[in-house]
């Protein structure tokens, strides 16, 4: 496993070691001891989520203002452009974003600690997306920041308008959003 730091403190790209031959491949998608050794992070995951979406679906930018979730995310089918946005008001990178392609082919994962909003857009015909979270889903604390807020300026790889949920269409601007201290 290789851990790559990003410009946002705490957000990490995880590249697993893949063993492949003419039969297929094998890789360890998560190992708590190794993850802690390489990243310094020791998360306890309590929930796994799985979504499947068509090309052009954009989910996010989501977070929970209480019961904040750290997320380890990866794609098992297709490809997405995955984004983390720093919502920690005291952070020198507050309001900044990091994006990366996650795909079944590259097998990369992204660690997004609590204090960040998270979202992705599907860039393949379809994508299956897995999330490991450090806290349970709490709809009463769920919040969203608008995917195209110009104050954040995410450069989404889109061919036209994305498909959004009703709640993502009316998400808050960063200036109006509840954020972390």
From TrEMBL:
GO molecular function, one term: dTDP-4-dehydrorhamnose 3,5-epimerase activity
Alphabetical UniProt keywords: Isomerase
EC numbers: 5.1.3.13
Residues carrying the site annotation Participates in a stacking interaction with the thymidine ring of dTDP-4-oxo-6-deoxyglucose: 137
GO term, biological process aspect, one: polysaccharide biosynthetic process
Subunit record text: Homodimer.
Family: Belongs to the dTDP-4-dehydrorhamnose 3,5-epimerase family.
Protein task: Catalyzes the epimerization of the C3' and C5'positions of dTDP-6-deoxy-D-xylo-4-hexulose, forming dTDP-6-deoxy-L-lyxo-4-hexulose.
Protein name: dTDP-4-dehydrorhamnose 3,5-epimerase
Lineage: Bacteria, Pseudomonadati, Pseudomonadota, Betaproteobacteria, Burkholderiales
Gene: rmlC
């Amino acid at each position: 496993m290789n851990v790559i730091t990003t410009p946002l403190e705490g957000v990490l790209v995880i590249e697993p070691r893949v063993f492949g031959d003419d039969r297929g491949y094998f890789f360890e998608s998560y190992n708590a001891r190794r993850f802690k050794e390489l990243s310094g992070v020791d998360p306890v995951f309590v929930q796994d989520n799985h979504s499947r979406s068509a090309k052009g679906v954009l989910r996010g930018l989501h977070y929970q203002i209480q019961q904040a979730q750290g997320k380890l995310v990866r794609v098992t089918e297709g490809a997405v452009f995955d984004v983390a946005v720093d919502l920690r008001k005291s952070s020198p990178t507050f309001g900044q974003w990091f994006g990366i392609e996650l795909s079944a082919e590259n097998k990369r994962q992204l660690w997004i600690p609590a204090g960040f909003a998270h979202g992705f857009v599907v860039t393949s015909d379809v994508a299956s997306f897995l999330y490991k979270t450090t806290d349970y889903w709490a709809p009463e604390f769920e919040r969203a920041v608008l995917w195209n807020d110009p104050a954040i300026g995410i450069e989404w790889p889109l061919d036209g308008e994305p498909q959004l949920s009703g709640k993502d269409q009316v998400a808050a601007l960063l200036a109006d959003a509840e954020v972390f201290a």
